[in-house]
Design goal:
alpha/beta, five-stranded parallel sheet, 5 strands, 36% helix
Length: 140
């Protein structure tokens, strides 16, 4: 299953870009990052049997084990792509939220979008490590 991060804005050369790259390289699953301008631009075409996950402050706060279980279930059900969308400064409108398969939150605090990318990459690495029984994650 492809893990695809689609994010508004350019990350450029920054400490957040280094963190994103560090975790993305460690993920054993196929992974892709697509950047879109802050406004406009086209999201890549959606593939059949995919899931749309919006990072949103109104979303569900999943622990790492629950997040891993969800990814594992999608993978086992034949989902071809899990697409994680990070919006612009104003986030997503209600229509986009309605179309999502999952609204995911990293807590009620507001995070800079570049940090959200790095945090998402780390959580994707953690989840895939959990599913592979790798010792990276320590529960409890």
């Amino acid at each position: 299953m492809l893990l695809h991060i689609v994010a508004r804005g350019r990350i450029g050369r920054s400490p957040e870009a280094e963190l994103l790259d560090r975790y993305a390289k460690r993920i054993a699953w196929p992974m892709r990052v697509t950047e879109l301008p802050d406004t406009g631009g086209r999201e890549p075409a959606t593939v059949p049997h995919s899931r749309r996950i919006l990072l949103d402050e109104k979303g569900e706060m999943l622990g790492s084990m629950a997040f891993a279980e969800k990814l594992g279930r999608w993978r086992d059900d034949g989902v071809r792509e899990a697409r994680f969308l990070i919006g612009a400064a104003d986030g997503f409108d209600d229509a986009a939220r309605q179309e999502a398969d999952l609204l995911l939150s990293f807590g009620r605090a507001t995070w800079p979008h570049l940090m959200a990318r790095a945090m998402l990459a780390e959580q994707l690495f953690r989840a895939t490590s959990i599913l592979a029984n790798h010792p990276y994650h320590r529960e409890g």
